[in-house]
Amino acid sequence: MSTRIEDLNQLISQPTFWHNSVTYYQKLQEIEFLNTKKKQYQRSHLILEDIKAALELLELYADEELLAEAQTNLTQLQQELEIVEIQQLLSDPWDEKCAFLTITADVGGIDAQSWAAMLLQLYHRWAVNHDHKVYLVQESAGNLGEVKHTILEITGRYAYG
What sign does the dihedral 57-63-65-67 (CA atoms) show? Predict the structure, then answer.
């Protein structure tokens, strides 16, 4: 992975690279993604090393605090691996892309519009919690300020998947 990052860094250092905005945006996204993967790997590796060290010490003598720390690290490592597993499942090229989300409550009156407003909040909160950016593309309010029709653009890796 490190050589791939180095290759990309060498590519962007060329003066002609910046002439095509689509190309440089895609390559910068790829560099950011690879750096994130590298940090994720390093973080998981450090956690695993901490667990190994704790287990070696626990073989020598029992320590409740050390055992609790090892269990906490093991839980954290399990969460990291679950994230990696989900990312592996999202292997289709489109899964990594951004997404447009449309919420429509044209039929059903105020109840449907209230439900659409709740969905909008739910999806917005999910996107923000997953480090995605959310842009309001279009919005149409109902009679009481509820949501009748909304289009959001959610940008960030795996927003579509």
Answer: positive
